[in-house]
Amino acid sequence: MAVEHTRPTGSEPEYVSERFTATAEQEGSRLDAAVATWTGLSRSAAAQLCAEERVSFRGRPAPKSHRVGAAETYTVQVPVPEDPHRIAAQHVPDLRLVHVNPGYVVIDKPAGVAAHPSPGWKGPTVAGALAGAGITIATSGAPERQGIVHRLDVGTSGLMVVARDENAYTVLKRAFKERTVTKVYHTVVQGIPDPLKGTIDAPIGRHPGHEWRFAVLQDGRRSVTHYEVLEAFGRASLVEVHLETGRTHQIRVHFNALQHPCCGDLTYGADPALSAGLGLTRQWLHATRLGFTSPDTGEDVEYTSPYPADLAYAVETLREGGPQL
User: Fold this and answer.
1) Secondary structure in 3-state letters for 291-307
2) What is the pTM of this model?
3) Is there a contact between 184 and 163 (Cβ–Cβ < 8 Å)?
4) How many Å from the N-terminal Cα to the C-terminal Cα in the chain?
5) Where residue 143 falls among pLDDT bands split at 50, 70, 90?
6) Which H/E stretch holds residue 114?
7) CA-to-CA distance for 12 and 318, rounded, in angstroms?
8) N or C: lower Cβ tally within 10 Å for the chain?
9) For residue 221, what is the enclosing H or E element?
10) Per DSSP, what are the bridge partners of residue 226?
């Protein structure tokens, strides 16, 4: 079998040209069915290749309805699966550059943006946005998350720091590991936590019944969340959170375990009616303050982020006595 790579142009997918020979059992089959068998693609994807003239017989494009003959050889341009870890430069208009210097960049991440590429995620990423803005980052770390020293959930907005050189990566990674970084979040949770100020010390692990969820589990990793209610609205409360540890989904899991889930967080028990009344399409959770020792100067630095429009609207609705459910 001969294989030849074609060069991709712009954002078009890459294709590999492969030759396939029909078997006796395939004689009389429609070409799109045969192509699906040869390539492992779906029947509709195989038909699309025929429509794009990417399937040829004797040097000429063949339609999907063409009947295959035994021992006939066909050339098919097969799409190469996209690397789920590839960082593609992209423009993310709502991502704000808070501070940029040679060692690191602090960004204000909007909801709907992942920290880095991962299997199954097709949306924008912080790494891709920085590449699109012409901002180079450190090469340390796994290829798809070079320079990333901590993450925010896709649905969580707010402050992130990304290392731009190797010294900053080492220093910041150590600071997060040793918990010397100030990480302050604001969240709106359902109801009013009791007590109004406290600590949630409950281990977190991957949920045994849900691949993408986490839960408080006896054999989970130690997870500590400190919180204080800033405003109580009756059906919901604005809460300030300080993280002592940084587990995946930690705030969301801990407040769900308290039976005060983050408003808008349907994954972790939020009331859909209240979420809709507040205009929320994601969890009300925002990384509002981030402080650390600068890898460049050794001085303590701190950055703040205001609430984005959707979260501010939800708080104002609660302050005005809404929503009317």
Assistant:
1) EEECCCCCCEEEEECCC
2) 0.74
3) no
4) 65
5) low
6) none
7) 47
8) N
9) none
10) 199, 242
Active site residues: 153
pLDDT at 5 over 70: no
Comparison of pLDDT for 2 and 103, the residue scoring more: 103
| Rounded (10°) CA dihedral 278, 193, 225, 254 | -70
**CA 311 to CA 122: how far, in whole Å?**
24
Q: What's the chain's length in residues?
A: 325
Distances (CA, A) of 224 to 32, 136, 217: 56, 34, 13
- The span from the CA of 298 to the CA of 95, in Å, is 27
Name, in order, each residue with C-beta under 8 angstroms of 32's C-beta and a sequence gap of 6 or more.
43, 46, 47, 50, 64, 65
Output the six-digit token pair for 277. 């009344």
* 296-303 long-range Cβ contacts below 8 angstroms, 24+ apart: 296/101, 296/102, 296/103, 296/104, 296/168, 301/99, 302/182, 303/98, 303/99, 303/106, 303/159
